[in-house]
Fold this sequence. Notes:
The chain is α/β, with parallel strands linked by helices.
Amino acid sequence: MWTCWRTRNGSTRIKLAISRSIPYFFEDLRGGFIHQISNLLRFTGIHANMKHLGMKLGIVKAPENTIPQISDKSPIQQLATLVSKPIIFASYCIDASFQGNLKFCGGTKELNLLVKLLRQKGYEAYMVTYDGSYEPWLLDSQPHLSIAEYREKLKSAQNVRCVTSLAGAKAFIQPCQQIYLWDMELAITEHQDFAALANLYQNKLQGVAAISRTIQAWHMAHFQRSCTLLPNLIDRAFWFPTPEQRQPRRVGYMVEGSHTEAYLKIIRETVQAKGLDLEFQQIQGIEAEVLAGMRSCEVFLSMNIGKDFLWGEGCPRTVIETLATGGIVIAFDIIGNRETIQDNFNSVLVPRYRPELMAEALVRLYSIPGELDRLRSNALALMQACHTFEARWSAIQEFLQL
């Protein structure tokens, strides 16, 4: 399987390179030919007449001020003005074995929040899983449809938006004519889904959004198409600070993989050697339990090292959720974290795989009077300005052409 997708990706990249070079080849050939003819005609005095004829025939480009003005709206947007509001479907369902209803998955939560926001704005919107079922772990799960119900709605709906976070979500993508991709994870897009993504760009992809600027730049560099920046969403109906519940010197963490126990041991021993007495609290469970745990901590250690050696993790939600509840984060420097955290402004970043530096940062936070309050104030201001539903609504409108 590993060799299969690597080989497929290699052939896809070769095809992309060839498809890009062919238009440039003919453009250069045509440009060179026209340039030579133009030089010859200048000596005859009929250059202006020939240029005018060339513009009429489309061989020579007309000056910009003579080009007819084209509507800024895409065909989808022009159609939308003639019909009712679009119905929006969101899913990452691949098939019966990967139904698009993963529990404790950041992508599940992001799409759920997108649907919630769209419904608040008056749009008919749904999550789609293979059989319509879902794990009840979120505080506010949105309406779900099965793939069969989704297909039926597509038959009668005139104006739809189908949003996915996986280019390989075959069961969801296959029935729709156009797809909107909100890419949250380069560890998947760059590897096993690359060929599927390239195919979507050629056939079905109407709009692209990225959860970070790194992912945004990756799409623009590979496919020469615009890509909307749409970072993590925070539901302020639930995720807000409750200072009375915050416990002094309590440090939260989650089990982020097999490395967690060893990393935590290093951190504990380092802070104890410095004479710092801290309580380390493991946070786990459904969203309500995680919310209560986050609110009780002053600091959170994000020991997420990511799914990919190069890209790390696309959108670690524990970081943004900690900041939204007024906690301070010490996190490894991976994609999503480095765009949410401004180091030593609203929290702290340390190099990946360096728990001893996490411990040093923890000691420093508790050694500087007022440092926790300063970082917390900046973090809450950033959450309000950049990650609330209202702050991100314009980006969603751009992405989905609403």
